[in-house]
Amino acid sequence: MPRIDLHAHSSASDGTASPAALVRQAAAAGLDVVALTDHDTTAGWDEAEDARPAGLRLVRGAEISCTHGGISLHLLAYLFDRGHPPLVQALQRLRASRLGRAELMVQRLVADGVPVTWGQVQGLAGGTVGRPHVAQALVEAGLVGSVEEAFSDEWIGTGGRYWAGKEDLDVLEAIGLVRDAGGVAVFAHPAASSRGRTVGEHVIEEMAAAGLAGLEVEHPDHTEEARRRMRDVAGALGLFVTGSSDFHGTNKDVALGAWTTGEAAFAELVDRAEGAEVLG
Ligand code: AMP
Ligand code: FE
Ligand code: FE
Ligand code: ZN
């Protein structure tokens, strides 16, 4: 059975491996298929393509920061046309909002005498800036022991003391943009309640009606109960089920291929895609 991991981040967003290192690590981990899904960017696509080892198939994608009714949610977009102007502009807006809010979090930390700087955080981010880069600065300053530890109420966990929100894209609009760009949309970690509030099943129903194709059910942030529930929802709505590690290099404690996607779901994903090819 091929091993398929459909969600991984590189240093083009908040992962720690470069896109080239990521595809090499994916092959070394014994994966047959890996998807590069950096937050709100396709900046890592070319480097990953150039470095792709023979025998590894590469799915080019992105993870789009979305919102619905004040709840933040992530949409995985696969095999879309990266030049589709409305999508390009939407991703640009998302990255700009991330930049402003990261600087605001740093300003709040600095105002409280925390020894981090905006220049330091910008230096830590090689592309799309995210909270893990602010967290890395807090680790460098010796204030927390790990990136994970910074995701608390005391620091930059959602709603936490130094947390600032960003302006995300309405999820139904995002699904429309991905489809218009020939891509396939999958709801990332739909029931990861440890990250904050999650949407109810009626919202997933609306997303399905807007053209959502799949649900990421097998994910490190899901409990067994959440996976069971999401599998049922996917079945009821005719969505395919994916599994993935959501690899972030050393920023998170999960290995490439820790969770994987079945062959049939992957075939359906590829079948639906019109915006870009699987490489390899
Ligand atoms: P942002 O997209 O800037 O709001 O930051 C969210 C990102 O932080 C996610 O994509 C994860 O990479 C990371 N993250 C979220 N929660 C945690 C956590 N508890 N521990 C470590 N990293 C986390
Ligand atoms: Fe991330
Ligand atoms: Fe995510
Ligand atoms: Zn992710």
Q: Describe it for me?
A:
The structure is a single chain. It contains ten helices and eight strands. The protein has helices at 19-28, 45-51, 85-111, 118-124, 131-140, 147-150, 171-180, 201-210, 224-237, 263-272; strands at 4-8, 33-39, 57-68, 71-78, 169-170, 184-187, 214-218, 240-243. Strands 1, 2, 3, 4, 5, 6, 7 and 8 form an eight-stranded mixed β-sheet that branches. Strand 3 and strand 4 (71-78) form a beta hairpin. Helix 1 packs across helix 2 (45-51). The radius of gyration is 18 Å and the shape is globular. The model has no long low-confidence stretch (mean pLDDT 98). The structure holds adenosine monophosphate, fe (iii) ion (2 copies) and zinc ion.
Radius of gyration: 18 Å
Q: Point out poorly predicted stretches.
A: none
Number of helices: 10
The computed structural class is alpha/beta
Measured as a percent range, the helix fraction is 25-40%
Order of helices and strands: EHEHEEHHHHEHEHEHEH
Percent of residues in beta strands? 15-25%
Largest sheet: 8 strands, mixed
Q: Which outline best applies?
A: globular
Bound compounds, each kind once, are: adenosine monophosphate, fe (iii) ion, zinc ion
The end-to-end span amounts to 17 Å
Number of E-type strands: 8
* Average pLDDT: 98
Please tag this protein with its features.
binds adenosine monophosphate; binds fe (iii) ion; binds zinc ion; 8-stranded mixed β-sheet; 10 helices; 280 residues; 17% strand
